[in-house]
Amino acid sequence: MDANFEKVEGIAKDFVNEVKKHISVNKAVIYGSYAKGHYNSKSDLDIAIFSESFKNKRFVDVTAFLFSVARKYKEVCIEPVGFADTDLKSGNPFIKEIISSGIEIDI
Description:
Elements: H1 3-20, E1 27-31, H2 33-36, E2 45-51, H3 59-70, E3 78-84, H4 93-101, E4 103-104
């Protein structure tokens, strides 16, 4: 891991800690270009948040909440996506890809 990734990983951890001030977080995963090592200075930071708090919530409400937390970060554009913790076992191909190729954030 290079210094840039370590900086971004620190931002990701800080973001998750900010989210945890409002809801429980069961799992958080960096996915996309940063997880695959194909990032550059214009890459966004894709973060998946899994929480029981998102169960039975509208996607638009979950997304609005996560972006309201993410907007304070100016060093990198955070692109969060939220799922209910039960979605981890859903078989959703997108979630399977996040879990298989992503980097779990220690929470």
